[in-house]
Amino acid sequence: MIFILPKLVITLAARKGMMIFSKGNGKESLRLRLWFLLPLAGALLLTILFIVLSIHRHVDRDLDLNAEKIAKHAEHLYQEGVDSSASMLGAVMEVLATNQKLQLALAHRDRAQLLQRSASLFAELRKKYKITHLYFSDSNRVTILRVHQPARFGDVIDRETTLQAQRSNQTSYGVELGPLGTFTLRLVTPWFDANGHLLGFVELGMEIDHVMRAVQHIGNVKIFVLINKQRLNRKEWEDGMRMLGRLPDWERLPEVVVSNQATEDMPSELAQGLQERMQSEQEVMEPVVVGTSAYRATFLPLKDAAGRSMGRMVMLLDVSAQLKEASRLTRESVLVGGTAFVILLGFFYWLLGLVGQRLEQDNQHLREMAEHDGLTGLYNHRMYYLQLEEEFMRRSRTEAPISILLLDIDHFKLVNDRYGHLAGDMALKTLSELVMGSCRRLDMACRYGGEEITVILPETDAEGAMEIAERLRKAVEAYHFELGGSKSGHITVSIGVSTSSESIRSSRELTESADHALYHAKEQGRNRVEHVNLLNAE
Question: So what CATH class is 381-537?
């Protein structure tokens, strides 16, 4: 491809160049370069841009795929953590259910006995298993005892986990949102007596911070939990934040608050774009720069035991290394592409310069071929009439006379027969040189046809034309012509002269009259000059 391209450019340049050169002279090489280098430069720049965009598109696609993979893995870890914790709570519940004294105290709604029997047990569960909640409620879901908050009782529990346990008479569990904006895993089991009568409900609960930390550690991501404001009571939430020693910031985001279960504060750069992304239900967010690091944010919907949307878990995946690699590839691509761009542009600039020079030379050669005779170097028959027409147009303005000479080699056939056609060509070429040497700068010598040569003499009257013609005739007669090899000899010419007048007003009439004078010169013995006006006078 590298070797074909210059040849292709030369071919195209030659075709296009001929079109350019045919339109005019001057600065042809520059125009040819512009014709080809501007599109080439545009194509190269588009190629570099395409490469850079391809790199970014490829990196973005990899980041998206990796973020989606992390999000699915995190979702799996989260659900697995919840299920595992629920299994542990279920095992603890089974142990509690074997305690007959607790069952008897629940049956008698005896708060004092329940607290006495469960307080030390709850402290051990809290220490060993991170269990944070232990409830006892009657068959109507009225709280008898909160072991973790003994002072609060008598309220009706209407959380979904308790309602499900009441409806199904079986253990129910799920994650539910508390008033402080914390997610708690709750497991509720109905207790029955030996006769199958419902004694009440026992509930175990634990914060899911450990699940969040496990997802963050195993998934190698930063996690923040956003909670829908519509699921919270602002006053209770703000009071709870102050109780925990945190500064409540309800207005930080329009529709969500940041849960206190996060392991660190959310960067302000991330918070600015979260609300818009949540409203558009995006699962992956564009990279967010936090300090010297860049993160790709993914969102995992969080639902409670009733399937209601409570908010989202935001996972920040560090993509700094990938973005730095993409920047490095982009810089290298631009550097390599720019270098190639400069080299190719310079190469084709030089190449097209050569093509332009060659075309200029060829164009000049074609022009000379179109205007000059190939053997003698004189102007050809076509140029003779073009120039003569211009002289007559000039004469119409200046009224200056125009004369022409029409020369013919005497007995030229004998020269060809005796010495050969090559000798005849040499003689004709030498004669042309003599004619051009005898012409003035404003005169124009042309090969009219065969061995006939014409000379246009602008601003020359009959007397002046005769003088020039006679001088030329004598110069030819005296010249020693080389005819090839050791052959040489003398030749003579007959010259017919004609000058414009009232009766001769066109190039054709002037040529015909000169031809008539030439014919008369040959009739009179050759090697002589005749003027058509003088003949007419005679």
Answer: alpha beta
* Contact (Cβ atoms closer than 8 angstroms) between residue 192 and residue 198: yes
pLDDT, average across residues 277-285: 55
Tell me, which fold does domain 99-202 have in CATH? Beta-Lactamase (3.30.450)
Provide the token pair at 323.
């973005």
Q: What is the DSSP string of 20-60?
A: HHTT--SSHHHHHHHHHHHHHHHHHHHHHHHHHHHHHHHHH
- Check pLDDT > 50 for residue 27: yes
Reported as a pLDDT band with limits 50, 70 and 90, residue 387 is: very high
pTM over 0.85: no
> If you ran DSSP here, which 8-state letter would residue 231 be given?
G
- Unique residue bearing structure tokens 């090489």: 29
Stated as kind and residue range, the H or E segment containing 421 is helix 421-438
H/E run at residue 177: strand 172-177
Closest CA to 344 of 44, 4, 42, 48: 44
DSSP 468: H
Residue with tokens 């119409």: 396
**99-202 matches 381-537 in fold:** no
Are residues 166 and 201 in contact, defined by beta-carbon separation less than 8 angstroms?
Answer: yes
Return the SS3 of 278.
Answer: helix
Q: What is the pLDDT of residue 272?
A: 62
pLDDT digits (tens, 9 = 90+) for 203-247: 999 988 888 888 777 667 778 888 888 888 888 888 877 876 777
Domain limits of the chain? Answer: 99-202, 211-318, 381-537
Residue 299 pairs in a beta bridge with: 314
CA distance 152 to 146: 7
- CA–CA dist 16, 410 (Å, integer): 49
pLDDT category of residue 468 using cuts at 50, 70 and 90: very high
- Cα-based distances in Å from 410 to 61, 273, 422, 469, 535: 92, 104, 17, 15, 21
Architecture per CATH, domain 211-318, reads as 2-Layer Sandwich (3.30)
Work out the percent of the chain whose per-residue pLDDT is above 90: 38
**Predicted pLDDT at 13:** 45
Between CA 393 and CA 387 the distance in angstroms is 10
Helix (H) or strand (E) holding 222: strand 222-228
CA atoms of 500 and 485, how far apart (whole Å): 44
Three-class SS state of 400: coil
Beta bridge partners of 298: 284, 315
Euclidean distance between CA atoms 146 and 154, whole angstroms: 10
**Whole-number average pLDDT of the chain:** 82
Q: Which tokens sit at 431?
A: 């004669």
Extended strands (E) in 378-482 = 402-409, 444-449, 452-458, 481-482
Residue 169, both tokens: 């008479």
Is 255 exposed, middle or buried, given 0-12, 13-18 or 19+ CB atoms closer than 10 A? middle
SS (H, E, C) 312-368: EEEEEEECHHHHHHHHHHHHHHHHHHHHHHHHHHHHHHHHHHHHHHHHHHHHHHHHH
Question: What tokens appear for 69 in the block?
Answer: 């993979």
